[in-house]
Amino acid sequence: MSSKNYYVSGNTVRELDTPVRHNQRTRKEIEEARRRKNRRNAARRNRQRAMEMSRGYVVFLTACVVITALTAVLFVRMQSQMTTRMKNVANLESQLADLRADNDARYKNLTTSTDLEHIKKVAMKKLGMKYPTEKQVVYYTVENSNFMDQYEDIPSK
């Protein structure tokens, strides 16, 4: 069966000079189609292989998940311990501040409640004490120390 091809030029239909082959493929086209089919099959096999997981890979992924979960649990635990310790430190600092304020208040109470004039009068009148003269004052120099040990009596002049 032969088919004829026609084309329209103006208002008349003419027959084409070159015959067109239908349903006939060249060897090159057949090879190209085979290569495409092989590529599709290889891609499908690769996709199927990628979807499958071996036991070793599953064990590896499970180990990774377990290690990650343990690390997260330990991190949260350490954060909790640190928060508890920080609260404890803040509590101790608050207690220290209260004790210092109480100590300062008691010291101020002691210093203001002591009547130095009364002590001076009792010492001078009842005990017979008086201020030292220039000849009674002896000055000592202490080198590199905050205190001095007395091994003998202070010499009198």
Automatic annotation (TrEMBL):
Residues 35-48 have a biased composition (Basic residues). Residues 14-34 have a biased composition (Basic and acidic residues). The chain crosses the membrane at residues 57-76. Residues 1-12 have a biased composition (Polar residues). Residues 1-48 are annotated as: Disordered. It comes from the Bacteria. Keywords: Membrane, Transmembrane, Transmembrane helix. This is Protein required for the initiation of cell division.
